[in-house]
Amino acid sequence: MVTEDERAHFEGRDAELGSLLLAWGLRNNVPVDGPLDVPGMDPRWIARIRSDAFEADLMIFYGPVIDVSASRPSAPEPGYFVGGEVGLSDERFIEMLNDLAAAVAGGPDPGWLRVVQR
Prior knowledge:
This protein is of the alpha+beta class. The protein is built from 2 helices and 6 strands. The longest helix has 25 residues, at 4-28. The relative contact order is 0.16.
């Protein structure tokens, strides 16, 4: 069971990453929803990163836990992609966001995403 102190720490870190996500979203024209007032199993922040070539949903959960699901709608053969991390640094989070932005712009799939067959 999570104590109130642990919950406050988790929410604080979620807010820190959420602030980074909001600033990154503004610079990259990516809509961001959050902070969402939700139970612990639902995402606190959501960003939908889209282009014709690549689509990704990035979610920040309590913890903080980062979860990403993505696909290439124009080339669905390999399936879809999933990935994420727990307790990452600010620098690593921005790196992940920039990897997704590069994929949306037509670059390679982020190496930290793994393919899940359909």
